[in-house]
Design a protein that fits this description.
1% strand; 44% helix; 414 residues; Glycosyltransferase; mainly alpha; two-stranded antiparallel sheet; globular; 15 helices
Length: 414
């Protein structure tokens, strides 16, 4: 979810009657506040400071880059005393008050980053997890703002955060006996319709579910208990028919169904189109990158590769204009797909480009090591073997795969 999407979410939330103020569809190109030391990017951080920082840190770690300590310090400094994170607060010397609008997405992505990178901030992660649990809705899900109606994107990013922080998601019941997966599955379209297996962002006023590609890409990872990094799976072959979720307390089938819908949706053009008003015919580069991560995590490798190739030929200008979060999304997509190369993406080194948007990293691993996602060359990619520079990233990937298997008991490679 890029900053324009996040701003649109805030505006839409205001329309449906919660406490969020209406905001512009995109941030001002000229920052209204000084860019603090340690923050990635030079655009106005009002709507996406914590989000882009966390995504940049996750992407760097995935490819073996140790970020500057001041980048982590800046992120931790955004946290409020109650454990929640806002999108951005300029003056961290003042305690958070009612005017500081905290949200589940910023809090969850910060938890994902801090839990993945280091144990140094376990106390802060624990406080954030406690806050996320405290604002869980009765249906088991989460809205963007505390108390807001559950949506697929927010519920999924929180699931990824809690899972990475060590919470066993299927066993997390609220007072009503609902789990986060209950909240997510209620947004899955049934298997007997034209958009079988897709996810809606939220039901409309009449309770109708409408397929949403952005929500589906997020929900696939949520259903698998994955962070935004995802994890590669063995080739699952062609997308299968939609299968209703079983009653085992997991959501494997829903994740597979969502990924199958994404694969079929992407098959025509190779990319997703924008859902923003007035831009429906324009490519959505960020959501396409997110879909690639979801597809690879479901084992739909052929479509993941095809969409990654499309991104290689079209997304660099978008990333240059959009900044660190965009580079991070492309890194995560290129790293997880067999045949992707973060150091040769459309002729550019994504890692170098991302590193240049923030403080100088503590260490950049220069020992090329084949990543878990690219250890096999195939005729389909002309024998191209991605070299991922991932001493730390390989350890992360192994941990993610192990935790994912414990979480969901998925049946792959059969």
């Amino acid at each position: 979810m890029n900053v324009r999407r996040r701003a649109a979410v805030l505006a839409a939330t205001a329309v449906i009657g919660t406490a969020a103020p209406a905001v512009a569809a995109s941030p001002s190109p000229s920052p209204s506040v000084a860019i603090p030391e340690g923050l990635y990017g030079d655009g106005d951080p009002a709507y996406d400071g914590v989000w882009r920082q966390s995504l940049a840190l996750l992407a760097q770690h995935t490819v073996g880059v140790d970020p500057a300590e001041k980048a982590l310090t800046w992120l931790v400094g955004q946290q409020c005393a109650n454990g929640a994170f806002p999108a951005f607060r300029a003056d961290t010397s003042k305690a958070c008050d009612a005017k500081v609008m905290v949200d589940t997405n910023s809090t969850a992505v910060a938890v994902q980053a801090l839990s993945t990178l280091t144990t140094s901030y376990d106390a802060q992660v624990k406080k954030a997890v406690t806050w996320l649990k405290s604002v869980q809705n009765k249906d088991g899900g989460w809205g963007y703002l505390p108390g807001g109606a559950s949506d697929a994107n927010s519920t999924s990013v929180v699931i990824g955060a809690l899972s990475e922080a060590g919470v066993t998601i299927p066993n997390l019941h609220n007072k009503e006996g609902k789990t986060p997966l209950d909240g997510l599955l209620k947004l899955a379209l049934p298997c007997d319709g034209p958009d079988a297996g897709a996810f809606a962002y939220q039901p409309d006023k009449k309770g109708k579910l409408t397929a949403n590609a952005d929500a589906t890409a997020a929900a696939v990872l949520g259903a698998y208990g994955e962070t935004l990094v995802g994890s590669p799976e063995d080739d699952a072959g062609s997308p299968a028919d939609c299968e209703p979720a079983n009653d085992d307390g997991l959501a494997d089938e829903a994740g597979d169904n969502g990924a199958a819908w994404l694969a079929k949706t992407l098959a025509k053009d190779g990319y997703l189109k924008s859902a923003l008003p007035g831009a429906e015919d324009q490519p959505d580069y960020g959501n396409t990158a997110d879909a690639v991560v979801a597809l690879s995590s479901a084992g739909f490798n052929d479509q993941a590769v095809a969409s990654l190739r499309w991104l290689e030929g079209h997304a660099l200008k978008w990333a240059e204009q959009s900044g660190p979060a965009a580079y991070a999304q492309l890194i995560l997509a290129a790293d997880v797909v067999k045949g992707g190369d973060v150091h040769d993406f459309g002729g550019k080194d994504l890692v170098t480009l991302l590193n240049a948007t923030g403080p100088t990293p503590e260490r950049v691993n220069t020992m090329p090591t084949a990543s878990a996602s690219t250890t096999e060359a195939s005729d389909d990619n002309d024998g191209a073997l991605t070299v991922a520079w991932t001493v730390g990233g390989g350890l992360l990937l192994g941990a993610l795969i192990g935790s994912a298997l414990m979480f969901r008991g998925r049946k792959r490679g059969q």
